[in-house]
Amino acid sequence: MISKSMQSVTGFFAREWLVQLIRRTPCGTLTLKLFCAQATQNQDSLSRRIERLPKGESVGSAFRSWMRDGFPVHGGDVFHSINRLRKLKKNIRALQVMEWVIRERPYRPRELDYSYLVEFTIKLHGISHGEKLFSRIPVEFHNELLYNNLVIACLDKGVIRLSLEYMKRMRELRFPISHLVFNRLIILHSSPGRKKMIPKLLIQMKADKVPPHVSTYNILMKIEASEHNLENLLKVFCRMKEAQVEPNEISYCILAIAHAVARLYTATEAYVEAVEKSITGNNWSTLDVLLILYGYLGSQKELERIWTIIQELPSVRSKSYMLAIEAFGRIGQLNRAEEIWLEMKSTKGLKSVEQFNSMISVYCNHGFVDKAARLYKIMKASGCKPNAITYRQLALGCLRSGMAEQALKTLDLGLRLTISKRVRNSTPWLETTLSIIEVFAEKGDVGNVERLFEEFHKTKYCRYTFVYNTLIKAYVKAKIYDPNLLKRMILGGARPDAETYSLLKIAEQFRT
User: Could you tell me which NCBIfam families the record lists for this protein (predicted)?
Assistant: First the structure.
């Protein structure tokens, strides 16, 4: 899928639901066992009542109906409700819940309640409001949890300097700093221009005696995977093992996806096996990743197994439908992809361009441009506006159908649209672009190959040998000799292999 399939993976690693749980939980206050119990008991009760409130209706009505039914309001109910609302990005409701709890006092507020209040106040009203609120909170609750949440809330707003000042204050008060604070700092410094600060952050983390945590290593691995740097990714993984930190399902998902993208399928299989062994329950995010992975590995049996598990969940997300469509399309099971598409259409409705793109991508990858064009017309008629991803997929479909002129026009239509950096860096976008380049390379169209290849330098996708070999193949097919190709390849971060030297040897024949 050239929509946002791999972006869902990026989102999955960034969210890390277990980290979010620990983030708001004070040591010794609420255990994971209690959280699971509350989630099981109340998932259709207080939290659901709050979530289903009509827009504009006070949260107080949900609390009152809950109490009228004879249920007291416990901290665990609020804890579960807040985590549900955070996951659904309903920050306004979350703040209203906490304001009601502090105002009505159904139980004696604790540090966790005040930390929630600070968090959502800053999210909705800014840091200055949060700091004023912080100063009014009883001093007895000015502890490590409240300070850690204050720092994280500031970091969520991207205000690093103020966060560092609060961290300094925590050291003076001898409050332990959470690894989640450093996780957020690392993420904020993950861009190429700021990445050099990460080793210093890790040194400071050690100086503050913050124990190594699997989530920190997962973030570091994800950064390297995003830059297509397998060597550094594996170094981080080795450091994690040396620190005796046990990898979790997220760790193995990162490793599996990275090796699948690099077309190292034997290693991918090994990491997929590790994912299956470490998976905790029916976590939909991990199941979505497994759909992608079994699509790469071409395993129809395993795809069907995972899809069956997903269908048995209480609710199947549109994203899961789209990933299943793409995965079955990747292994050539078009009829199965169409079946799932029709099922998504009937159960979820077609509301987004991403839904249409998922099926268009399958048709275009296999050269069924007529089917893709019909779906494109239905998309426009339904009010969904095609995006750059749509046009790039259609361009590939045109090329695979031998419609080179139409492909170039379609490609240019997409280039006129705004394309976010996140989309340009996504693996589906890069893989579709490579598929287009491969068709141009077979035709010896060096001009269009070079034009599109520039995108790979910006994203570092050209670190893979097979990507650079496609460029060299274009020159060979065009019977053009370029003495700088090997140098460009090495400087781009790719390692020449047997195919590279074979292609270069053929290219020698065209030396003038």
Answer: PPR
